[in-house]
Each structure stands twice: as structure tokens, then as C-alpha cells.
Amino acid sequence: MFLPALKFYLCAQPVGASTHSLDALGQVLVLHGLMSIAWDMQRRDQTSLGVVSTAGPASWKDLLSKAYDRWKADFDSYCLGAALASTEPGDASASEWSAFSAAYRAVYHAAQALLHMDFLDVQIYAGARHILGRPVQQQDYVRSSRVVKRWASNSRERAATAAWHGAGMLRDLMSGDGGSDPTGKPIIESPHLTSLFHVPWCLYLATLSCWAFHHAKSARRGRVEDGSHLHDEDDSDGSDEIVWDSRKEMDDLVAAMAGSMRDVVASQGRRRTNGLVWVVADELSKVRWGIVHAGVVVLRGLVPMRLINQYEVM
Fold first, then answer.
1. What does the record give under GO molecular function (predicted)?
2. Is residue 271 a contact partner of residue 160, using CB atoms and an 8 Å limit?
3. What angle do CA 123, 167, 216 make, to 5 degrees?
């Protein structure tokens, strides 16, 4: 049943009875199967020495992106049906289904974002000091900085897609209007998510994707315009302004980026990300996993404390 389900999603064939009979675990396993294929294809591209091209209307990234979308449609339908059939609204099982659905939609958004950005380079550009157990050297940072700035400037469709999925995840998990929790509270506050390691890591990924999308573009634009001192106030991206309300700034940013793809592209480099980075870092600081704490250090380093009005009480 596993391989036929993968083929259904990859080949865009009509969904058969075998996929409808998948339970919750089966749905999760199929998603991880698709992600494993993406990882294998990425490794193939890295070792092909330029022989294999990912360009064209039928590139493997396009096929996998559409497969992810088809999986999400079936997954949302399954979770909705299971939640309605389980118990009455407000019961504990209804909250569990909401948390389960949000947790693996986060994996879906992360998988889509990873198709459209080089996350290791984004982490190094953000200031990570160790990657995969290896210390980051100066030449690593210089190379990653060039990769990320080129991604933000020359691959705007890829960058916007990664940022859009990151914002979608943040809306689902961090915003009360994400529609994920029956009580109306942000789903990240659900006790059912605290023990899931992948949710904090997905939040870290989503935050860096949104930050890099805006910061790398604005930094590049700033260097180009550095020769002229005219219209300095118009050119400022607001990155050096005090954040008086971190939560509101985060909500405004996420709401603007989780809309249409055209809006995401139009807003590139013009949105302040300090509030988002600070709120997520504060949320992740409550997680006990060591690798997440390393991510918190990276996020904290992106925002000087002097710019956060609430840092003394957070």
C-alpha cells in the first residue's frame, strides 16, 4: 500500500481506494516517503557535476511540490473527517486532532520550503556557528552569504515560495486566527505539541526563511543604493527601529506574507522581521531540546536587545 500511495501522489493519477484507506500513521509515512525522495534527488543533484538539470516544466522539484500539495489536500480531508467523527467539539480528542493536523501541516510547509531554499546556507548566513557538528569557518560564511543573497535577488519565485510556506506555518501555529485550535488560542500553546520535537524545529526553519527573504534582499539593495544619500528615510527598511509591540509586528508580517504570492514578492525587503524573530525565539526558549536551544541562540543574535521594548519582561 505504501509504494502505490507514493506513485499516486507523484504521478498525479486519480486517487484510488488504497490512499483513502490510509490511517493517520499511513498519511504521515507517505509524507515522509515523499520527503525521502526529495532528499535523494537533492543528493543526486549535488553529485551530478552539472550533468542533471532541474530546469524545465517537469523538473523533479515541481513534481514533488505538486505531490506535496495533493498529499495535503487528502490529509486535511482525512483530519477533518476524523475530527468530526470522533467526539463532540470541545472534547479532548477534538483538541488532539487539531494539534495532530497542525503538527503535520507544519512538516508539509517545511518540506515545501526546503524544496525552494538551501537551508544550511540560510542558517550559516543567519550566524549559526556549527552545522552538522562542524564549526563554520569564514569561507563558509562568505560562500553562504553569496548563495542566500543570490537566492533572494535572482530567484525571487523560489524565495517567495519558501517564504510563503514559512509564513503559512507561522500563521497556523502562532496566530490565534489560524483556525487550528477549537478554543481560538494559538495552537502552539496546545500541550499535545510540547512533546513533538519536529514542531519547534519547523518553527525555526519557517522563521529563518521569512527573515532571509527580507533581510538578504534589503541588505543587497542597501549596498547598491549606498552611493547616494538621497531619500535615506524612504530607503530604510526599519530594521534599526525599536519594536514596541513584538507580537503585533509578527502578526502583521505573517498576515501580509501568508496572502497571495504576488503580495509576498511585492513586500520583499520592505517588512520588518525583528518582532517575528524575537517572539519565536522566546517561544522556542521554553523547549528543552538542546538542538532547539542552539536555534534560539541564532535567532537571538539576529535582533539587538536594544531594539526590543519588552525584552526585560520576556
1. DNA-binding transcription factor activity, RNA polymerase II-specific; RNA polymerase II cis-regulatory region sequence-specific DNA binding; zinc ion binding
2. no
3. 45
Higher model confidence: residue 122 or residue 244?
Answer: 122
Spatial distance between the Cα atoms of 286 and 80, rounded to a whole number of angstroms: 30
pLDDT (mean) for 225-254: 63
Question: Whole-prediction pTM value?
Answer: 0.85
pLDDT tier, 229 (very low <50, low <70, confident <90, very high otherwise): very low
Q: What is the pLDDT of residue 21?
A: 74
Higher pLDDT: 173 or 226? It is: 173
**Tell me, what's the pLDDT at 232?**
41
Cell 511540490 -> residue: 65
- Classify burial at 77, counting beta carbons within 10 Å of its beta carbon; exposed 0-12, middle 13-18, buried 19 or more: exposed
Q: Please return the burial class of 92, using the count of CB atoms within 10 Å of its CB with bins 0-12, 13-18 and 19+.
A: exposed
Kindly state the average pLDDT of the residues 156-181: 83
- Which DSSP string do the residues of the chain spell out, in sequence order? -HHHHHHHHHHTPPP-HHHHT--HHHHHHHHHHHHHHHHHHHHHHHTSTT-S---STT-HHHHHHHHHHHHHHHHHHHHHHHHHHHS-TTSHHHHHHHHHHHHHHHHHHHHHHHHTS-HHHHHHHHT-SEETTEEPPHHHHHHHHHHHHHHHHH-HHHHHHHHHHHHHHHHHHH-GGGS--TTSS-GGG-TTTTT-THHHHHHHHHHHHHHHHHHHHHHHHHHHGGG--TTHHHH--STTS-BS-HHHHHHHHHHHHTS-HHHHHHTTTSS--HHHHHHHHHHHTT---HHHHHHHHHHHHTS-GGGBTTTTT-
